[in-house]
Write a structure and sequence with these properties.
The protein is an alpha/beta fold. Helices cover 48% and strands 9% of the residues. Strands 4-5-7-9-10-11 form a six-stranded parallel beta sheet. The longest helix is centred in the first third of the chain and has 28 residues. Bound molecules: manganese (II) ion.
Length: 430
């Protein structure tokens, strides 16, 4: 029996208030879609089977390098974080897995697994941390980790990643995500080639012990914390890494880790074409790696990314199973509400991409009819798919309106009474 953090009667009462309106909106949308040759039930079933992992670090309030303003009832540790994650899953039915971060979430793996089982949660990719120093470590990562000039520091960073794999194995994870802060702040500070050679050698050590059924995700980032050069700075370097390491190595695309206006959907298409798309860290940005909520700034770009994913399925790309994860920092909202809303936005982009008339698009592309080709995408994007998202949640036992239900439940004030106010400090941006 799964432990539910939102009382079943609260959820049922909130759904009752909205079920008539949903039924009528869903019927109207169904009729509209059927005129377009689309069966709404098929789309709803596919949306209900689409999941995105929640990052454990996302349920705490984030911060910037200037300050952090803690929220009410912040999780005290990984077990509180898992409880918060279970609320998101209970209401959205879109986030059954949590992505852990070591050492932030380090604890007895047996207890982690037991708590996950009790809450009905599984575990997605493990995330290692060699971009900050843990209290007990012998060597500092100030000048790098997997690419450090010092062999002992590199060995320590490799060892940490192996530990993440061990913990992951014990809790049912099947992937390791490696993001490093290594880079340089001054021209001449690092030899680009030697630094990258050292990185590749360290990653090869990690890859060597990766279990057969695991995948290794490397995550590129253009800048920050290093501001002149970054070792894994872009998708080209990321592709070289995955190609060099072997078939279990794939590239992770964090939407915020690119130059403004970069054509991310095209990067996604290239990685799919060459079998190296590992998955995503979803978020949104206006200027840089802002870590804003997915779909909050440029929902059309999110749709265009999903358009490439659905296109790949349509073309029958084999062994295509990108990992979907959220990676955001919540500074001014209740993190649970942000993650609920982001999971919905991600499903929305997926649902809209499923509505694209692909045979028609193929024809317009073949005929070089640019206007009708782009209009075909826009027609899908303009469709208000909210009734599909709500019905998918309702059918799976979730909330028709998850944010309203969350607020009605009083969960935040309940946990605020149990969890002491946390102090400022400690960001959460990776
Ligand atoms: Mn990320």
């Amino acid at each position: 029996m799964v432990e539910l953090k939102i009382a079943a009667d609260v959820l049922a009462a909130e759904n009752d208030k909205r079920s008539n309106a949903l039924q009528s909106d869903y019927a109207a949308l169904g009729e509209n879609l059927s005129r377009r040759g689309v069966d709404i039930e098929t789309i709803t079933a596919r949306v209900a089977e689409f999941f995105v992992a929640v990052p454990s670090w996302g349920v705490g309030t984030g911060g910037t390098r200037f300050a952090r303003f803690p929220g009410q009832g912040e999780p005290r540790g990984i077990f509180d974080k898992l409880e918060d994650c279970s609320v998101i899953q209970q209401l959205t039915q879109a986030t059954p897995n949590v992505s852990l971060h070591i050492p932030w979430d380090k604890t007895d793996p047996k207890e982690l697994k037991a708590k996950g089982d009790a809450l009905g949660l599984g575990f997605d990719a493990m995330n290692s941390n060699t971009f900050s120093d843990a209290a007990s470590q012998a060597h500092s990562y100030k000048y790098g980790s997997l690419s450090h000039t010092d062999a002992a520091t590199r060995a320590q960073a490799v060892e940490h990643n192996l530990e993440c794999i061990e913990i992951g194995k014990a809790i049912g994870s099947k992937a390791l995500t490696v993001w490093i802060g290594d880079g340089s702040n001054f021209p001449g500070q690092s030899n680009f080639t030697r630094q990258f050679e050292r990185y590749l050698a360290s990653m090869a050590e990690i890859y060597k012990v990766l279990p057969e059924d695991w995948r290794l995700f490397s995550e590129h980032k253009m800048y920050e914390p290093a501001f002149y050069s970054t070792v894994v700075q872009d998708w080209g370097t990321n592709y070289l890494i995955a190609q060099t390491l072997g078939e279990k190595a794939h590239c992770l695309v964090d939407l915020g880790h690119h130059a403004p206006n970069a054509n991310i959907e095209m990067i996604v298409a290239r990685l799919i074409q060459f079998g190296k798309l590992g998955g995503f860290h979803f978020n949104d940005s206006k200027y840089g790696d802002d870590d804003l909520d997915a779909g909050s700034i440029d929902p059309y770009r999110l749709f265009l990314v999903f358009n490439e994913l659905v296109d790949a399925e349509y073309r029958g790309v084999t062994d295509f199973r990108p990992a979907h994860m959220i990676d955001q920092s919540h500074n001014v909202t209740d993190p649970i509400e942000s993650l609920i809303s982001s999971a919905n936005e991600i499903r929305r982009a997926y649902a809209q991409a499923l509505l694209v008339d692909r045979p028609a698009l193929d024809g317009y592309q073949q005929d070089n009819d640019a206007l009708m080709a782009t209009e075909t995408l826009k027609r899908a994007y303009r469709t208000d798919v909210e009734p599909i998202l709500a019905e998918a949640r309702r059918l799976s036992g979730g909330a028709i309106d998850p944010v309203a239900t969350y607020r009605a439940s009083g969960y935040r004030s309940k946990v605020a009474a149990e969890r002491p106010a946390s102090s400022a400090g400690g960001g959460g941006i990776v």
